[in-house]
Amino acid sequence: MANERILTIALNTLPRLRAAIAREAFEHFGSAAGILAASTAELTALRGVGPALAGAVRGLDAERIGTEEAQRAEALGMAILTLEDQDYPQRLRLIPDPPRVLYRLGSLLPQDGAGIAVVGARAATLYGRTVAERLGCDLAAAGVTVVSGLARGIDGCAHRGALAGGGRTVAVLGTGLDRMYPPEHHRLAADIAKCGALLSEFPLRAEPEPWHFPLRNRVISGLARGVVVVEAAVRSGALGTADMALEQGREVFAIPGPITSPTSAGTNRLIRQGAGLVEGARDILDSFPDLAARLPAATPERAAVAGLSDSELQILGALGQAALPIDDIIRVSPDPAARTAALLTALELKGLVRQHPGKIFARA
Predict the structure, then answer these.
(1) Domain of 339?
(2) What whole-number distance in Å separates Cα of residue 254 and Cα of residue 228?
(3) What are the CA-CA distances from residue 290 to residues 161, 219, 286 (Å)?
(4) Quick one: pLDDT at residue 303?
(5) Residue 171: which CATH number?
(6) Residue 129: alpha-carbon gap to chain centroid
(7) How many domains in the chain?
(8) Of the N and C termini of the chain, which has fewer Cβ atoms inside 10 Å?
(9) Letter string b/e over residues 11-43, b meaning 16 or more CB atoms within 10 A of that residue's CB
(10) Domain ends where: 70, 100, 128?
């Protein structure tokens, strides 16, 4: 008979055996072997287990499937963790419905247990993307692991920012780790695996099913000690992650945004409901005594800013957290239009300003 670990991996390949049902089944029958030995009547007596799932459990060739799955993961350089493994993330282990099985590509370090999750809208605005990247960079520079979901928009920017800050980042996927989604983040995922980890509770070859992502969100918040929502509509997965964070006893923060922006409606509502208002990494770190001293006194940006002219400083101040068209910048600048355009070019060369299509500028 296969060992308990292999049987657990095999059971995790059943799509209908979701985490909450698996938890109840393991508590009732005591082990994977006990679940597999149970009768159809015993299985269907459990909440959430219907005839179809009971039949799938009864018909599972667990030893073969579990062994093949473990071998396939090993060939891809992945580790498979179960709740019984010592290196399973301790913070995640304590949530109500932790994944029974967790696939990992890359490495997890003890310091990752003090991570901060940065999440938000896929259809993010330039403002949101800029803030998420800067926040990820500053948190990583302070030695804080940035956790997110590798999705388009805010998630991807948070991961990129963390990598730019020279720190660690962890991405939780809603697919199997051999099914990269979205596909354009394939290179980003490879970079994350070198400076952190890719994680998934879903077996290999699992596709991006819509129901995977709400499940994935509880793992994002479960890994972190706090969750920051950068942009979110009133109904969004990011707000769902915030709700799960509260249920798990995590701190919740939000970035304020323009009242005219639909993607800021959710974050502004979170702030009204008591979420911590965040204007920068310092606001997050100050909420945790052990992190409060971590934000570097001088970053490359601050060092560069020290040598700027008054006009350049005024332009940076005008940009603040928002991106602006060049005409708006010229209007608030004390210098002539040609001089202001030249100063913007100089700030770009210094890496302090980034130009986007349509002559829109934002702090880099």
Answers:
(1) 300-363
(2) 5
(3) 22, 23, 9
(4) 46
(5) 3.40.50.450
(6) 14
(7) 3
(8) N
(9) bbbbeebbbebbbebbebbeebbebbebeeebb
(10) 70
- 321 and 354 in one domain? yes
Residue 215 structure tokens? 């499940």
The CA distance from 133 to 127, in Å, is: 10
Query: What share of the chain has pLDDT > 90, as a percent?
Result: 66
Mean pLDDT of the 64-78 span:
97
Is there a single domain that holds both residue 244 and residue 122?
Answer: yes
pLDDT tier at 346 (50, 70, 90 boundaries)?
confident
Q: Does some domain include residue 77? A: no
**How is residue 241 annotated by DSSP?**
H
Q: What is the CATH number for 340?
A: 1.10.10.10
pLDDT of 338 reads: 87
Task: Give me the amino acid identity at 94.
Answer: L
**In the chain, % of residues over pLDDT 70:** 93
Is 133 part of a structural domain of the chain? yes
Is residue 361 within 8 A of residue 320, CB to CB? The reply is: no
Query: 82: how many CB neighbours lie within 10 A of its CB?
Result: 17
Single-letter amino acid, residue 331? R
Domain's final residue, options 285, 310, 331: 285
140, 61: one domain: no
Structure tokens at 329: 């910048």
Same domain, 117 and 56: no
66 neighbors 8 (Cβ within 8 angstroms): yes
Asked whether the whole model's pTM tops 0.90, one would answer no
Q: Are 125 and 265 within one domain?
A: yes
Instruction: Kindly provide the b/e burial profile for residues 242-262, where b requires at least 16 CB atoms within 10 angstroms of the residue's own CB.
Output: bbbbeebebbbbbbebeeebe
Whether 214 shows a pLDDT value over 80: the answer reads yes
Strand order in the sheet with 353-356: 324-325, 360-363, 353-356
Query: What amino acid is encoded at 322 in this protein?
Result: A
Task: Kindly state whether residues 128 and 193 are assigned to the same domain.
Answer: yes
Side-by-side strand order, sheet with 101-106: 79-82, 101-106, 196-200, 169-172, 146-148, 116-119, 226-229, 251-254, 276-277
Q: Which residue has the tokens 């890994």?
A: 223
